Amino acid sequence: MRFPIQWKLKWAEERWMGQLLILPMQLLIWFVLIIPMLIVIYLSLVSWQPIMGVDWWQAPFAGLSNYVQAVQDPRFLTAMGRTIGLVLVAVSLEFLLGLALALFFHQQEFPGKRIFASILLYPMMLPWVVVGLCFYLLFLDKGPVNYILISLFGPSASVQWYQNPILALMTIALADIWQWTPFMFLVIYSGLGALPPEPVEAAMTLGANRWEIFRYIVFPMLKPVILIALIIRTLEAFKIFDLVYIMTGGGPGTSTESLSLYLYRTGFIYGQLSYAAAMALLVLILVALVARLAVRPLEREL
Amino acid sequence: MPKRAWTSVLARWGIVLLVSLITLTPVVWVLSLSFKPPQEWLAYPPTLIPRQPTLENYLVLFWPGNPVGVVSEMVRTAEPVTRAFINSLIIVPISTALSIVIGFLAAYGISRFGAGGNFLPFSVLTTRMFPPIAFAVPLLVYYRSLGLIDTHLGLILMYTTFTLAFSLWMIKGFIDGIPRHIEEAAILDGASRWRVMFTITLPLIRGGLAAAALFVFIMNWTEFLFALIFTSRFAVTLPVQVSRYAGAVGRYYGPQAALGIIASIPVLIAGYLIQRYLVRAFTFGLVK
Amino acid sequence: MAHKEQVLIRLEGITKEFNGTIAVQDLNLEIREGEFLCFLGPSGCGKTTTLRMIAGLERPTRGEIYLRDQRITDWPPQRRNIGFMFQNYALFQHMSVYDNLAFGLRVRRVPPTEIERRVRAVAQALELEPVLNLRASRLDLSTMQRVALARILVIEPQVLLLDEPLNNFRPGLRELMRAELKRWQYQFGRTMVYVTHDQEEALTLGDRVVVMNAGRVEQVGTPDEVYWRPATLFVAGFIGRPPMNLIPVEYRISEGHAFLISPDFEMRVDERRALIEASSFLPRLILGIRPEQLLIPDLHASSHEGLVRIPAKVDLVRPLGRKLILDLKTRSGLLIQMVTPSTRRFAVGDDLEIAFHPHQALLFDPHTGQGLY
Q: How many independent structural domains does chain C possess?
């Protein structure tokens, strides 16, 4: 080739520099991600508890018994079902509310719009525990929600929110919806703002009404953004821990326990780390599968 | 203005006000609670503006034994939040800075040299995809052997790694947005690759880096699960302290509310500053 | 054609303001049935805004729009049945070409068999049949343009509005597509309103040209009128490449004769006296002469009488193949451009005498910018 030798040197140097640049990140990833993953696989195949008195690398081999126990554990399975249900309800409501708000803010002009938009955004910045605390305090037996109910419907309308499993779950879902509808609003609103105006105008001149424009033009153009928002929020909501921990502690009984909370208790309160490891791996596989399925339509879109 | 226009303006305002009200109420209620003396905590009917406002709920958080009033008498046994506050102020900024520095270096390597191939940038995303509890189980075993439990270093390492996904992807988005020919011009002028990275590219994405840093700060400041599991006395952070007040101190709603407010202020300020970057941040730069 | 003179769209006193800045001011215009009308002007002159108001995409701040004597100022775009072709074509990228074409009919609730028939017919006319099932995002530019046109033709609009549709083409292809457009206009015989900033495009395509500047109409006329009889100084300077020479002159009466005097030449204008004296800024006037109307007398053996002669020096020679452009400096330092056949060689610094026929010179009032005809 006619390239001067310096060019070749430059390329070699750049390869070397690239490797060097990603080295710190790779070290951290090995240290906090990959090695622990190997350990969790190992742990799930042995039987070990911190109180057993043996070091963890000397624990007796247990085969797949932890996994067998997990798939037969009703508390694990109900926690899983409950979490999935919570995610479905909360995320779909967040999506619908966020979409409606985003469309409203996108189409309407009114004074103070920017200020209102930034007011809507603040909940997602708050620490989860603080959101949990806020809603916990709102739904106290003598809290403001009950006060409003009583003044509207009389003294018998007062509800003991945390005594009833369904109602307790509802308060958790409400807190999640309150905190994360802004996320959906924000992503969809900025997605709407980034759409080119011409296709919508073209549809108008071709005679489409507002609904047809939304259904056939705006919504399809927005689909990638919506999919990204839904995937991120679903994965995030599936982790739910802080809200449950603060608001109900999983109670009454274990009736509001989320998957993360049950795993936390198994591993760190009851000390059954091997069993927790097996359940954690099952959860990882499930999440990975769901994520894979969810990303597929997105790949088609992009 | 015709009559119809007026009603539609009113309807718009009505919707907006209602939504803002719903958004603001929970926090405003807690804010009001934090200034109330004990007899008003559960007063019936509840008051939005405290009748006898007091700062005691805040003071008692930092000087619990100090007998200045009724609240202090009640929560005499609670531990002061001072340590948690200082811990958060140590752990969060350090891990944020580390995350940004490491994220910037890696983002530059990936964006400009394709280092790590396709796999690396996506593998980082898995840290945000899976429930953190799944990582906590093995990390506990491992941290015990290394003596990292209940240490600042232990949390800093975790926080740095688990926010790398955000800093890497956000910063990579900013670097990708800078045309290469700007750098190439500097190289032709004889500058070395390293020099170009620090004196050309870095200043150009300064604003983006600041936004990424503030966002990572929010993520670290609000983290709860790892802090709950991996700290017990020495390295406790503010969210854990909030949860302890909510649990252990039981019905002392005033101090709980005050602590919640204190824990929220830094992230609210940070969030306000990076408003226009929030979409990018929360979606790893996938939506701009 | 008899119906050609019939007015299809009438704009009456249209003004459009955006947050206090005026985009279009007091525009009056009639668009005739079946004509190809071109809006021409520099960017930001309000031509696209006018087009968007006709389509209903913008609402005029003041004034009325009529379609066949029906007031449509308040009608939404959906009701107007006007086809609008966007600069970037605004195809529905997520749909197939077929769905793009069928969209306007589907939202009109046209029966499916009818849709199929009409889409196929238009697709055939514009040679789009092979791409009907492709996604609109996969087309090349010229196909996109045809799809955009087909999409509006299929709804059989009253009028087609085209907003700089050739802007995205590279120069060679641009001329080709221009010819295509002209052919389509003959083929489909529809009223077309066409916005462009390219004067060549406007002059070749338009039956009539509307020249706009800073929100106002400067002139409406046929391409010939606009070129040879510019109504205002702006039109004179805007149209033509190289632009018309605009020379400041002074009007003087001496010994009963009217003269225009410049440091470089004198010209008798007795026959235009009445027109000139209507001007508001006397004695000052602007004289306009096209570069191709200037000649070099010793090359033309024919009648040199009555020519106005200007001595000048060659400042720059710009060959253009068959022709060349000469930049000349007169004694007083005035710059004059002329176009001349490249049969003769010129060198920088050559002394020349150039001339023009006085009856070809145009006169403008420098204050109002109006031509004095």
A: 2
**Helix, strand or coil for residue B119?**
helix
Q: What is the dihedral of CA B245, B248, B250, B255, to 10 degrees?
A: -20
How far, in Å, CA of A83 to CA of A234, rounded? 11
Instruction: Kindly report the pTM of this predicted structure.
Output: 0.86
Sign, Cα dihedral of A280, A286, A289, A295: negative
Contact A127 B264 (CB under 8 A): yes
Burial zone of A90 (CB within 10 Å; 0-12 exposed, 13-18 middle, 19+ buried): buried
What's at B224, amino acid-wise?
F
Q: How far is CA B69 from the centre of its chain?
A: 33
User: What does the angle CA B270 – CA B271 – CA B272 come to, to the nearest 5 degrees?
Assistant: 90
- What is residue B61's three-state secondary structure? helix
Does pLDDT of B73 surpass 70?
no
Asked if residue C175 and residue C117 are part of one domain, the reply reads yes
Does ipTM top 0.85? yes
Q: Does A201 touch chain C (CB under 8 A)?
A: yes
- Residue A233 has, within 13 A of its CA and on its CB side, a CA count of 31
Nearest to C90 among A202, A212, A223 (CB): A202
- Bond before C248 cis per omega within 30 degrees: no
Measured between alpha carbons, how far is B271 from B287 in angstroms, rounded to an integer? 18
Which tokens in the block code for residue C73?
A: 């100022």
Chain C nearest CA to A108, separation (Å)? 16
Q: CATH number of the domain that B260 lies in?
A: 1.10.3720.10
CB atoms within 10 A of CB C197: 18
β-strand C323-330 against C308-320: which pairing, if any?
antiparallel
Q: Is the pLDDT of residue C270 over 60?
A: yes
Q: Classify B106 as helix, strand or coil.
A: helix
Whether the predicted pLDDT of A84 surpasses 50: yes
Check which CATH number belongs to the domain holding C268 and give it. 2.40.50.140
Whether B18 and chain A come into contact, CB under 8 Å, resolves to no
| Nearest Cα to Cα of residue C226 among C369, C357, C340, C371 | C371
Show Cβ contacts of residue C200 under 8 Å, excluding neighbours closer than 6 positions: none
> What's the pLDDT at C321?
87
Q: In the predicted model, what is the mean pLDDT of residues C149-164?
A: 91
- Other Cβ atoms less than 10 A from the Cβ of B272: the count is 13
A103 at interface of C, judged by CB pairs closer than 8 A: no
Place of tokens 């018994």: A65
Q: How far is A207 from chain C, CA to nearest CA, in Å?
A: 4
Q: What is the pLDDT of residue B11?
A: 83
- What pLDDT was estimated at residue C312? 92
Amino acid at C200: E
Minimal Cβ distance to C82: which of A196, A199, A205: A205
Q: Tell me, yes or no, whether C178 and C278 share the same domain.
A: no
- Encode pLDDT of A215-239 as tens digits: 999 999 999 999 999 999 999 999 9
Q: Give residue C11's domain range.
A: 2-233
Q: Tell me, which fold does domain A78-301 have in CATH?
A: MetI-like fold (1.10.3720)
Close Cβ partners of C31 (under 8 Å, ≥ 6 residues apart):
C7, C8, C9, C10, C11, C37, C54, C159, C191, C193
